[in-house]
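Suppose a colleague, Dr. K., hands you the sequence of a protein chain of 228 amino acids and asks what its three-dimensional shape might be. Before reaching for any lab equipment, you can write down a predicted structure in token form. Begin with the sequence itself:
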Amino acid sequence: MVKNNTLVRSSANQPESLVNPHIELYAEQHTSEEPEILKQLSRETHLKTVAPQMLSGHVQGALLRTISCMMRPMKVLEIGSFTGYSAICLAEGIAEGGILHTVECNPELEEIALKYFKLAGVQNKVELHIGDAFQIVPSIQGPFDLVFIDGNKDDYIRYFEMIFDKVSASGFIIADNTLWYGKVVDNHPGSSREVAGIAEFNDYIMNHKGVECLLLTVRDGLTIIRKL
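The predicted structure, expressed as tokens, is then:
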């Protein structure tokens, strides 16, 4: 949580938060209600997975849904499905006849994701791929109007370089966790792989001549990248 503008750990088992929890709660209360299916998915994720904080959650999910509904993309790619929450949100805005390809490396999460794709009524818009994104994505035909990157944090530059030529002209890439609990601010040679990877990615994007970017302080940081 944040006290007196200082980042602190909320508990021994909880990650650091960038936003005062009272403000986060207020934002949730003033964001359109979370669909019941997503509430159920969130509950099951917290019961059955060891890292439920990886879930996009209510406000971030609503933002992803809003972006997708504004764009009405025909083809979407997601790297890092987890239990399917963000895929469901992104799928809601897909244009008629469109498709979302989502890639998850952990086969143990497949059953939950497929279950909720069906319950949410998006099973015909979402194709789940289980395995290594670097092996799977090259075989998926683009172009993609929208890409959501939420995989291994030290691989973000590799993901970006892999998909960049597959993104349509003026298409968008959204990268999750680009503040990494605020630790990117104090990145140093002894930082974790995740902190170093995200910090390097942020600098890489800022200096990339083929894009413009906006880093939002939503949840753990979302960077919206537009291909020029």
